[in-house]
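Problem statement: downstream parser choked on a complex file, so we are re-checking the raw output for the magnesium ion run. The parser issue turned out to be on our end (a line-ending mismatch), but while we're here, posting the original submission so the record is complete.
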Amino acid sequence: MSDGAPLRITDVTITPVAFRDPALLNSVGVHEPFALRSIVQIHTDAGLTGLGETYADELHLERLAAVGHEIVGLDAFATEELHQRVQRVIDRVGGSGGSGLTGMITTSSTVDRVVSPFEVALLDIQGKAIGRPVSDLLGGAVRSAVPFSAYLFYKWAAHPGQEPDEWGEALDPDAIVAQARRMVDDYGFTAIKLKGGVRPPEEEIEAIRALRRAFPDHPLRLDPNAVWTTETSVKAGRALEGVLEYLEDPTPGIDGMAAVAREVPMPLATNMCVVAFDELAPRWPSTPSRSSSPTTTTGAGCAVPSCSPASATPSAWACPCTRTRTWASAWPR
Ligand SMILES: [Mg+2]
């Protein structure tokens, strides 16, 4: 594009997609049999098409469709106008409920979640129009590759009433090691993370130790999704000294994480603390510098039907159906 003329949106295609999700276990239940996503395609009068991707629950799809009609004719570079038009749509159709995996911790607004796939698609178009990667539009790439970690889950062989998947059951250390072996051999992962908070802590510690024996050089991470007490977290952290690269969200809350951080030898990581601006100011003076380091993970779903992202407020920042388990009977205090 060289003449500075607007690049007009002519059409928007929204395609819901359902793909199978194994019976993966986490602290609040099991993944549902299908994961729902939607693909947003924005078409322009120059023949360029941009791609975005987002949630696909029914309410979210209705909002996406409404926005799709609202932005026909918009210049593909007008992302601020996109935001304003999405705000108008949400004001008209409503913004409560929907958007996402049940039980996910969500601090973004409905407008943000609806804007996102369209904004990404417009950036895709802009990059194609000027012949530059989207990373250049956002300030430039700072690395050429990003390492991925194998992400192990305890799992059932199958969802109830369905045939076992090809990965089979994984409920003990040997099965977790076998799952890791297959992931490392097939995909070349150089680090391994286990989604914990499923089995009693001592079993998960044994699983990590088994992984260490099988993979002596792979960094290991454990994420119980804030389901342990601080006492259990400290005991587990100390038991895994020299074994874990980091322990992720062992216990709920900034204060709880700070208490654990003071007592365990490894760094903590989190994607459940300090996820909203109103969590910053009151904590700033007392937040320990080593309590939280950023990490990026894909979220795990919650199988509790009554739990919705709308009820997970920034101040609560926890799925309301999440409960803290205390393993007092099986775990020496
Ligand atoms: Mg996590």
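For whoever reads this later: The pocket of magnesium ion is lined by residues 223, 248-249, 271, 297 (CB under 6 Å).
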